[in-house]
Amino acid sequence: MSTKDSNLISDAISRSLDEGSAAVLVTVIGLPLGKSEPLTVGAKLLTKESGERVGSLGDSELDDGVAKHIETFLASRDEARFFKAEDFAPDVEEFRGASLLFERIEAEPQLVICGAGHVGASLARIAALVGYRVTLIDDRAEFVNRELFTAASEHNIELVLAHDWADSVREAIGNGRAVSVAIVTRGHKQDEDCLRAVIAANPDYVGMIGSKRRTNIVLDKLREEGANQDSLKKVHAPIGLNIGAVSPEEVALAILAEVVSARRGGSGLPLSSWRRT
Fold it and tell me: So where are the chain's domains?
């Protein structure tokens, strides 16, 4: 692979991450027996969700086969996976046996937490430990004090003092790609302000804490205001999986479990449930 092609792919990866869009980098890692052309080990092709391609594996038919398989690979939630050419391009006979590595390229997952009370602070700590880029927002300066987050895993938690909830939330969410939002504020007014901003930003996941009654009050209010109905239906409210959580830390764990499940395409069921069917 030439330096020029390598630079083009590196630039395309950077742009994709900046845009928040997903892409797949495919690399030839093994050649068919007795074949040396046109494929070469190390050849790369980057294909974006939009269909844009950068680079080539060395054959246009194989490139087309890869492009058709991208959606399936992204839907699988795998970070990386090895394939033989015949696994996804059975009609391209001459490359049977070629080995290719598919790698997911997307921005690191971000969790925006609205509300830094006991649950919000616990959620920020757990999510940071798991590997999320965390933004913790509150309108009370004492709750987003750096002295409260001193562990090594907590140093990268972004603490935001909200002078205006909507503005702070919109800025934190950005284009919404790879972003999950947990609304765990202290009251209806803050919930409403945050949810309005979140619905407009359209992140990948949004959940709101509270009883059925409390969350319905907020959702009904926004529905009356004309908020997008489809977006409101996607709100996980009450937020979290039912694990019988009681303490703030347990509630935070239940919330993060649902966030991860939504991101990874999990069912939320016990892994042992197959034994009971």
Answer: 3-105, 110-264
